[in-house]
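It would be a great kindness if you could assist me with a short task in structural biology. Thank you for your consideration; the sequence and its tokens are set out here.
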Amino acid sequence: MLSHSRLNEGKRCFARSYTTNPTGRKRIKKWKCTLPETLIGNYLIVPLISVKMLKHEEYLMNSCCREYADDCVDQKYSIFSIRSRSGERLATLGLVYDEDYWRFDQCLGPANKEVMEELSCHLDENGVLHTDVFATELYYVAHEVGRLMNSSANTQ
């Protein structure tokens, strides 16, 4: 039977190995974002500020956003969940920090579906097919998040 002190020693050893990566650095599970949760029109913008939040988004949106965790910790990348007011997940937005400026990187829906553009096809009077590309509301929302991130970064 294990003594109580040996059991506690085993717990501490397990905790150390769980919270450190192979380089010996502690794993950071949370980070900060200068933009708090906010509403833009009918869209709720939720900054994803922990590994747990990234895992949850990755699972529900069938994406790979967890791969950006290290860049998020280093404040080189910021990820947001764009949701309806009722909480339905519509898209995942990624911004990259480049030369002191947050710039749009990607915004994709469930299973990396395109959500920034809509196509409209129609036949003209001569029977020629025309395709028009229109920006969706999410296009403007995603770029507004970038603008807000840059303005909030400049005020701090």
User: Anything to note?
Assistant: Residues 13-19 have pLDDT under 50 and may be disordered. Helices lie at 4-19, 51-61, 69-73, 137-154. The longest helix spans residues 137-154. Strands lie at 38-40, 43-47, 77-84, 89-97, 102-108, 117-123, 129-135.
